[in-house]
Amino acid sequence: MDRIIAEHYKLYYNYIPARQKDGEEPGNIVNSLFGQVMRNDQEALEEVIRILLSNTYSMVVKRLGTKGIYGIEHIDELMQKISCEVMKLAFRGFPEWVSQEGFFGCLLGIAENCCKDFNKKCFQDLKRRNYEKDGTDIFQVLDTVKTVNWEVENVEQKILDEEASSIIREILKFYLKALQETALPPYQVITYCYAILLPQLFKRSRNPEFLSQLAKISGRDGKKPSSSYNEKEGKLEGKIARDSVILLNFAFSVMDQETVGALSQEFLELYRMEPLQEGEFAWGQAYQGHLEEVKEGKQVKELVVTEDFARNAVKNWPIRVAKSLLNDTEQWAAKDKGFRKKSVGIAEDLFIGGRE
Question: Across the chain, where does the E strand assignment appear?
Answer without folding.
Answer: 227-230, 235-238, 294-295, 298-299
